[in-house]
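TODO from last week: model DivIVA domain-containing protein.
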Amino acid sequence: MNYTPLDIRHQEFPKRMNGYDPAAVRSFLASVAEQFEQLLMQQQAQGEFLTDLERQLEEKRANEDEIRRAIIAAERISHELRENAVRESEQMIAQATREREALLSDLEGRTREADAQHEARMATLESAFRTRGAELERQFHQVLLERERAQAERLAALDQTYLERHSEFTARLSAARQEYAQFVSGYRALASSFADMASRHLLPDALLGTQALPDAPTLPSLPRTVTMKAVEAAASRPPVSPSPNLIPPGHTPPPAPDVDGPVLGGVAPTTTEGGPPTIEGLNWLDGIDLPAINPAGTPEPAPRQDERD
């Protein structure tokens, strides 16, 4: 029969005469119950500890079995993986070889196609370049011809303008020469008449003494005419050759009309080779405003500066 500490504490004994002391018995039973309770608790704790150890041992054994099975499985898996890796590597090598051959074949085809396209493109560009070059050359020749034609027209216009101005200047020079000839003729006639008058009215030498001679008679001042001092100053100037830039090369201007009449200071009209007629020493007319002579014989006012230009 199994006793518990509670059974020991509440155990009842029969009573007899001259028996044990109940208090001592109760005290002893209480002490025994406490010790028994402690022993039970220790036994229970040891049982639990033993159970825990057994459980841990079982777990260890189970873990060992699992580890053993895991090792076996790992070996089997590693072997399978090795075989699979070898098989997959062989398959990958074979596939890579097939892909390489396919890529090489495709690349060769694309290379041939690119070469053909490049040759066709080069032929097209060369044809376009030649066509464009011919067109540009044609345009260049056309522009060159247009420029040459425009230059020829410009030169023709300049030649026409030159001939017109030359004719105008020649006519004006001829008119100036005629007017100058008329002026010189009149001047000489007047000087001759003055000389005759002076020779007829000479004073004796005794009457001259220190008296000043009267001023020589002068011509009345006419509007826009030359004076003696201007003529003498102009006659004393050195001759100047005509400007060579007035005549374009390859053109021969018409000859200037001859002027009949007296010549002052050996000035005579001459004609230069390949150029317009000139008058050597006629540069003394520069700065002299000669009046024009109309058909009625009266002087006309000289043209203004803007009309001369």
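Done. The chain has five helices and four strands.
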